[in-house]
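worker-3 :: picked Apolipoprotein N-acyltransferase
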Amino acid sequence: MSLRWPAFLRAPCRPSWRALVVAVLLGAGVAAGQAPLGAWFVALPAASGLLALAARARAGWIGFAGGFGYAAAAMFWIVEPFLVEPEVYGWMAPFALVFMAAGMGAFWALGAGLGARLGRGRRGARVAGIAVGLVASDALRSYVFTGFPWVLFGHLWIGTPVAQAAAFVGPIGLSLLTLALAALPWLAPGPRGRIVGAGVALAALAGLWAGGTARLNAPEAPRDPPVNLRLVQPNAPQALKWLPEYRLSFFYRHLDLTAEEPAPGKPRPDLVIWPETAVPFLLNDPGAGLKMVAEAAGGIPVALGIQREEGRRYYNSLAVIGPDGSVGQVYDKVHLVPFGEYMPLGDLAAEFGIAAFAAQEGNGYSSGPGERLLDLGRLGRAEPLICYEAVFPQDIRRVPTRPDWLMQVTNDAWFGELSGPWQHLAQARLRAIEFGLPLARAANTGVSAMIDAKGRVTDELGMGVEGVIDAPLPPALPETLYARIGDGPVVALLALLAVLIFLAAPKWRVDPGAGRV
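worker-3 :: tokens ->
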């Protein structure tokens, strides 16, 4: 008896291998739009080609292959944490990349497959449905299983004037605009319809670009009173950061950078910010550490990333240290990284006697009580974001009152130097646009940056650089539309578009060139 593949893996249930390979390559082309390349002019045509291919073939399969290629190209940095100790964890790296890419493929397969069904066999309607389905997959991925809104379709515009639209529609709305532009050439049948659709897409893109440019060029009132910050970047490689022979030297490096005199013409900072988990001691057992921090700062408060213990639980925290070394306000990270900072269901497993993964037993971090603001007096109210928390705009909206600025402390040394840290920086820039707030970012190995309320980097330290940024905090803008309404209206619009496409599909003109591959 010969071994046969399951039916869904064989033609005609799946497209040809050639179509699947093309889908993988198109997905990788879409990934070119993400940081650090930012090649939107490659990504947008690739997304358009992927929509057309999915409309002709088995959309779910094409979606899976495209998502696989996209994630493999955009998120290859996922292997970097396993290479910090390659002799122990290196063998896991290829599996992590494959499973991550397959997970992205599953989201795209779901969106493309269900979206294609809205079209009822009409090619233009299928393209529209697939586009809506893929945007819905971005929305789903942003929220389910604690959310992972990384490298969304709309993120390819970060660094261009088009990203300013996020102040009104947010990241999912930006994804909808992106796939609408990609779908337009295929909505009407025939060569003439494609030319007209492409022309409409280019005109719409030009309008978005012009509108974003106008917003970027609009005058802004200066911050009153002015606030000057020092962002410390010690450049402590992750493989060395916690080794006994290095950890104290890295702490002293923080102190030396904090104590540096400002460059000529630079004012003395009002606040010093250190990155995530910056010190080799616990907040509740600092020894002389906090006094040393205060002495190095010379009377200036310091906000630093630090770990703390409470009972048998540990927290990834940010604490404000006063001029006398006293502990002021403390924020405990709320949105933890699954499998990285805690094990999902670990506390539940402890109820059944399996405590090895339980945060309540000190095996991983525990989540803090909730989002909050740090009241820094004349420096304003800052919303603290520890590392991963900067990728969740829905979490930023949970604070009861609007902050004056955003403060991110992070350690991106886990993710190499090629793409992961740059994508994390891009996310921070988008948060600034979405909320109309400046963002100060202190990163262990980079990229530390001062970002204004329109997402522009006003000062930065690149990867692998030791130093400080002394820079004024840019002013905030009036509260944006997205800050007020969030993602709800865009998600409702997606549902409405799905219904309209389904109802309109029978009347959609058939493209005589449509077929299956």
